[in-house]
Automatic annotation (TrEMBL):
<protein>
    <submittedName>
        <fullName>Nucleotide pyrophosphohydrolase</fullName>
    </submittedName>
</protein>
<dbReference type="InterPro" id="IPR047046">
    <property type="entry name" value="YpjD/YvdC"/>
</dbReference>
<dbReference type="InterPro" id="IPR012359">
    <property type="entry name" value="MazG-related_YpjD"/>
</dbReference>
<feature type="domain" description="NTP pyrophosphohydrolase MazG-like">
    <location>
        <begin position="23"/>
        <end position="100"/>
    </location>
</feature>
<dbReference type="Pfam" id="PF03819">
    <property type="entry name" value="MazG"/>
</dbReference>
<dbReference type="InterPro" id="IPR004518">
    <property type="entry name" value="MazG-like_dom"/>
</dbReference>
Length: 108
């Protein structure tokens, strides 16, 4: 699925199942919550924190998909074409960082 297709799939899902988009402010809060859930799994799986009983059954892929879903909702409701935005962002990063990272001894 392309990013453009994902934006259309999410829009269709909202129209068919979600009644309407939550407000942008509500979706921003939801996005923050979802990113927190990703952080919780990462800190336990790859960091020093130990898992709690309440962490049982949490799936990183599912949580990342939750983040992507809400991010796509925000893009759709604010008129952002994520394909174009990502390409523009990659072009910016390439111009700014193509040599910087190659010269970084911490990455060698």
């Amino acid at each position: 699925m392309t990013i453009q297709e994902a934006q259309q799939v999410v829009d269709n899902w909202i129209k068919e199942n979600g009644v309407r988009y939550f407000s942008e402010l509500t979706n921003m809060a939801i996005l923050t919550e979802e990113v927190g859930e990703v952080a919780r799994i990462i800190s336990r799986q790859y960091g020093e924190q130990s898992f709690k009983q309440s962490d049982t059954g949490k799936d990183l892929g599912d949580e990342l998909a939750d983040v992507l879903f809400v991010l796509i909702c925000l893009a759709n409701q604010t008129g952002i074409n994520l394909t174009e935005a990502l390409q523009k962002n990659l072009d910016k990063k390439t111009k700014r960082d193509s040599e910087r990272h190659k010269q970084n001894p911490k990455l060698q």
